[in-house]
């Protein structure tokens, strides 16, 4: 059941559409579909996903990592100290990822987007560096 007025649905769709366009103007997008943009960014495979219903922006940063039993023990530690998002380790394919979900209340400016992305990269780097020391 949808409780949103047509005007609110339109407003949310506009926020997502314009934010997505702004990102495409500032980042070299390698692939896209109706819900996501993908790119390489600062050593990470980056996927930016959008939902106009909520509206949300999900930033996922992934990178290959060597896996040991000790590595998996650090993931919980990382998540306990992470405020912005979550850290995940896929031991089957040797991949570390960091994921943050943001509400889009307004259209993001390039400055605000890159501030948020920079904080996500910092957190992903923190997690990745810790796993590399295992």
Strand order of the largest sheet: 1-2-3-4-6-5
How many H/I helices? 3
Largest sheet properties: 6 strands, antiparallel
Strand residue percentage: 25-35%
Structural class assignment: alpha+beta
Principal-axis shape equals elongated
**Architecture per CATH nomenclature, i.e. the level-2 architecture:** 2-Layer Sandwich
Low-confidence stretches: none
Number of strands: 6
Taken together, the total number of domains comes to 1
Average pLDDT for all residues:
91
Q: Considering DSSP H and I runs of 4 or more, what fraction of the residues is helical? A: 40-55%
Could you please say which CATH topology applies here?
Answer: Yope Regulator, Chain: A
Element string (H = helix, E = strand): HEEEEHEEH
CATH class value: Alpha Beta
**Integer-rounded radius of gyration:** 16 Å
Distance between the termini: 48 Å
Would you write up a description of this structure?
The chain has helices spanning 6-26, 69-80, 110-132; strands at 31-32, 36-41, 44-51, 56-64, 85-90, 95-103. With 134 residues, it is an alpha+beta fold. The protein has a single domain (6-132), classed as 2-Layer Sandwich (Yope Regulator, Chain: A), CATH 3.30.1460.10. Strands 1-2-3-4-6-5 form a 6-stranded antiparallel beta sheet. A hairpin with a 3-residue loop joins β1 (31-32) and β2. It is elongated and about 50 Å long.
């Amino acid at each position: 059941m949808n409780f949103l007025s047509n005007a609110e649905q339109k407003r949310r769709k506009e926020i997502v559409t314009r934010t997505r366009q702004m990102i495409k103007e500032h980042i070299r997008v390698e692939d896209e579909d109706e819900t996501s943009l993908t790119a390489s960014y600062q050593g990470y495979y980056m996927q930016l996903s959008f939902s106009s219903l909520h509206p949300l922006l999900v930033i996922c940063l992934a990178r290959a990592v060597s896996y040991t039993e000790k590595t998996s023990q650090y993931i919980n530690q990382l998540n306990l100290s992470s405020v912005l998002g979550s850290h995940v380790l896929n031991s089957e394919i040797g991949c570390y990822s960091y994921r943050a979900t943001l509400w889009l209340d307004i259209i993001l400016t390039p400055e605000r987007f890159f501030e948020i992305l920079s904080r996500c990269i910092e957190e992903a780097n923190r997690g990745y560096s810790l796993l590399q020391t295992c």
